[in-house]
Structures are given as C-alpha cells and as structure tokens.
Amino acid sequence: MVIHYDDEDLDIKKVFQVIAASVALALAIFIAVWVIDYFNASNNMDILSNISLFLTTYWSVIVGFVFLISLWDYVYPIYRKKLKYVKPIIEATSIMFGLWIVATFLKGLLVIVNVGDQAAPFLTLLHDLYFQQFAVLYLLFIFIGYSRFFLGNK
Question: Domain range spanning residue 39?
C-alpha cells in the first residue's frame, strides 16, 4: 500500500519495517538483560548490575528514540523540501541522545575504577558537562546545524 502526497510516495511496508526493527531491538534488549542477570546471579558484579539496571530502566527511551530516528531517516528523503528546516533540530537531538548514552556509560565505569584513581575525573567530566550544561550544548548543536544549513553546507 502506497500513500500519495504531492507526487511523493510513502511506502507503508517500509514504515512497518521500521516498526518491526524497533520491536526486534526491544526484544533484543530484554534478552540481553536476561543474559546479564543470568550470569550476574552467581557473580554479583556491580558493573553487570548497573548495565542491567540501565537497560531495564531506559529500554523504552532507547527503543523509542531509535524508532523515531529510523522513521526520520526513511521519511526525510521523501519530504526533504518540507522538512529541511527541522533537520538541524533533529540532528542536534540525535547528538544529544548519543552523548547521553556515552556520558552514562563513562560514569558507570566508576564501579570498576577506584574513585581515588586519576581516571575518575575524566570519567565523570562528560556526564557532569552533559547534565549541567544540557541547554547550552543542545543550543550549540542546533546553532551549528542551522549555520551549516544557511551557509549551504548541508
């Protein structure tokens, strides 16, 4: 089934493919949590407990974001002329999501690094920068995106 809008095609099969891939990601996260919890039952390692807790707590955010970005990647080329003004905001949001994952991961490494070690400040730097300067970072990425857009460097 194809829906026609202004001579542009939106293939429903591809939309369902994006949905199916997102559901598969959710199931893969559930299986990963089960495997982690299975091995962690006998070892009781803090890092495995933290990974399991993170995935259990944020699986819906991760799957939802991946779904929206996958849908954006499919829809944007079709409606490029209509969506080009929102693209820098979407790209900034994607960067912020990626930074959130990396910042949380690096902060989570503190359970295997002694807090007194020299590496501890570097592991917490991105996390603290991200959460304390969230609005500034987000605006920075948005303005960089729009400056690239208006200067013609798409």
Answer: 1-81
